[in-house]
Write a structure and sequence with these properties.
Elements: H1 2-45, H2 57-87, H3 96-118, H4 132-160, H5 166-187, H6 200-233, H7 241-252
Helix pairs in contact: 1-2, 1-6, 2-3, 3-4, 3-6, 4-5
Length: 253
């Protein structure tokens, strides 16, 4: 069963990568183009020679974007399937489909949205090349804090449910999660490398597109996986359903 869950996780991730590519092309590419133009103007004003492109801009926003999004989506889908196999039946008492949707929404919030609030994504032209390693480590650290806080909150809810109502246990665990990530966010260093001359509209549009792209990824993974997982859990082939219907219709005819 785990093998089938993993296969459908990979399929869901591939579908998510395709949809995310389309969304990024429509919503993200305009702001990225504006940011690149700003970076080029800043370099020209400073008398710096433009760095040679290892990959052309045309390839970056077509085949490169598609490849990166699909590979990323497939990786997320595989991890999602493994996480589903672990949490199903252990966290809450609900159907496989609802568990998949709940897990996708939680993953979006815990792994992307909360870390994003502390360290939002930046377009080209923002941030020094010398600090990219430190900024990446800070983002990963905030993601790890959010994930560990979520795991602790789930365990706290399970323990609290033995003493209080489910609603109260959920409120207690939710407050604990929020408290942990807020304290961690305040304690961790801030990163502000946005040039004063950088267009605020471009920055806002890019960050909106980043949130939207991640939402599309996780929503697609959750919806596709939720549609397939009931039949997978029941041990029935998902793709064979339409074939069985056509065969039955032919026999009746």
């Amino acid at each position: 069963m785990l093998r089938n869950l993993l296969i459908w996780g990979l399929i869901a991730g591939a579908c998510a990568g395709l949809l995310a590519t389309g969304f990024a092309e429509l919503a993200g590419e305009p702001s990225i183009g504006q940011a690149i133009s700003f970076e080029a103007r800043q370099a020209q004003a400073a008398g710096e020679m433009p760095e040679p492109e290892l990959v052309s801009r045309g390839v970056q926003k077509t085949a490169g974007l598609l490849t990166a999004a699909v590979v990323y989506g497939v990786a997320l889908g595989g991890l999602f399937a493994l996480a589903f196999g672990y949490v199903y039946g252990r966290v809450g008492r609900t159907s496989p489909g609802r568990t998949a949707l709940w897990l996708a929404a939680s993953a979006f919030a815990v792994l992307f949205l909360v870390p994003f609030l502390k360290y939002p994504a930046n377009p080209p032209g923002i941030g020094s090349h010398e600090t990219i390693g430190d900024r990446t480590l800070l983002q990963l650290a905030m993601m790890a804090v959010s994930l560990l806080a979520a795991i602790a909150a789930v365990r706290l809810r399970r323990a609290a449910s033995a003493h209080v109502s489910p609603a109260s246990a959920t409120a207690i665990s939710g407050a604990a999660y929020v408290g942990i990530v807020v304290v961690a966010g305040l304690a961790m260093p801030a990163v502000d490398e946005v040039p004063r001359a950088f267009p605020g509209t471009t920055l806002w549009q890019f960050r909106q597109a980043s949130v939207g792209m991640s939402a599309v990824l996780w929503a697609t993974i959750g919806l596709v996986f939720a549609a397939a997982v009931p039949r997978v859990m029941a041990g029935r082939p998902v793709l064979a359903r339409s074939g069985h219907r056509r065969q039955a219709a032919a026999q009746r005819g």
